[in-house]
Amino acid sequence: MNRDALERELKRAHVSLNGWLPVLQCDICKKRWEPFSTAVGDMAATARFDYWLCPNRCNRNAAVGLEVKTAIPRYVVINDIPGMIFGDEDLKEFERYVRSMDATEVQNRSS
Ligand SMILES: [Zn+2]
Question: Are 54 and 33 within 8 A, CB to CB?
């Protein structure tokens, strides 16, 4: 899963990513939402199959590509920093991003 390609596809459905933040934003009404079902206990939050659909349904008629339909956003937290990833490639990138925010952590892990 290529995050850039996915981001482009989401754009066509009037949806924006906000960096790594676990929220999507509607380009039409500017509504933000978390594309996950409510997590129960310590179960991993699972994504709704229509995670890209604006809660106000602005983009309900948008033709989303297969990439968007088959992508499964996952909620991850590393060092208390929440993020949204779409696959293992993204996870590595997100880990790099989190480490880049914390120089101490970089030292700890550079063995
Ligand atoms: Zn909307």
Answer: yes
Which one, of 2, 32, 28, 33, lies nearest residue 14 by Cα?
Answer: 28
Q: Hey, how many other C-beta atoms are within 10 angstroms of the C-beta on 96?
A: 10
CA of 33 to the centre of ligand 1 (A): 10
Could you report the per-residue pLDDT of 75-85, keeping only the tens digit for each?
A: 899 999 999 99
Q: Which residues, chain by chain, have CB under 5 Å from ion ligand 1?
A: 26, 28-29, 31, 54, 56, 58
Q: Which residues touch 75 (CB under 8 Å, ≥6 apart)?
A: 22, 34, 36, 39, 44, 45, 82, 83, 84
| Cβ proximity of 87 and 1 under 8 Å | yes
> Per DSSP, what are the bridge partners of residue 108?
none
Distance in Å, CA 52 to ligand 1 centroid? 10
**Over the stretch 26-54, which tens digit does the pLDDT of each residue have?**
999 999 999 875 555 555 555 566 899 99
Q: How far is the CA of 82 from the centre of ligand 1 (A)?
A: 23
